[in-house]
């Protein structure tokens, strides 16, 4: 059971470039989330999804886009990279399955640097 | 909308001393509450959670947290810390009633001195 898989692990982008951060989960969770982590700021929610075809903005959505065509995949798109998007990005999926199983599972993160 | 406040950005303690990491949340409806731990250069792992029932919840490595509805708090405690507890700890809240956002606090860095 792979859990939540993020690719790539590291990436350096030039200002203005675009890229997609991939996130896949094999636990059949309906809820998926993208966060960014900046030093001293904790995790800020970028976008989330409660099921295939449904997405919604989080706390810091500007400069990002998402799609959810399948239950398993929740890619995050950066269209015009800016230095302010330098961060560590985490994808998570959530199981709401009773007392024992209700928790969020996280990927290992993608460290993105925009120069 | 829900929010989470972790008042202490850093907490230094000596090994074998007790520690408390504070977490307060704001929400007008019932919530799920979580503590996650992040070791250096790793992702987040669930430490413990409150969903319903007993207000005192415990982890397998000696941490415990108590849900206090009147004070809207979910403080994390350990009676005796170990060097291996050095990590960043995040409190998180999710609305109980619907599929929704999980909002995290800004984190508390726990550093253990020998």
Features of the shown structure:
heterodimer; A: 115 residues; mainly beta; Immunoglobulin-like; seven-stranded mixed beta sheet; 0% helix; globular; B: mainly beta; six-stranded mixed beta sheet; four-stranded antiparallel beta sheet; 12 strands
Give me a quick take on this structure:
The complex is a heterodimer of chains A (115) and B (114). Chain A is mostly beta strands and 115 residues long. Chain A is built from no helices and eleven strands.
Mind sketching the topology for me?
The complex is a heterodimer of chains A (115) and B (114).
Chain A (H helix, E strand, L loop, with lengths): L3 E4 L2 E4 L5 E7 L5 E8 L3 E10 L2 E4 L6 E3 L9 E3 L8 E9 L7 E4 L3 E5 L1
Parallel strand pairs in A: 2-11
Antiparallel strand pairs in A: 1-3, 3-8, 4-5, 4-9, 5-6, 7-8, 9-10, 9-11
Chain B lengths: L2 E3 L4 E5 L4 E3 L2 E3 L4 E8 L5 E7 L5 E3 L5 E5 L4 E6 L8 E9 L6 E3 L3 E6 L1
Parallel strand pairs in B: 2-12
Antiparallel strand pairs in B: 1-4, 3-9, 5-6, 5-10, 7-8, 8-9, 10-11, 10-12
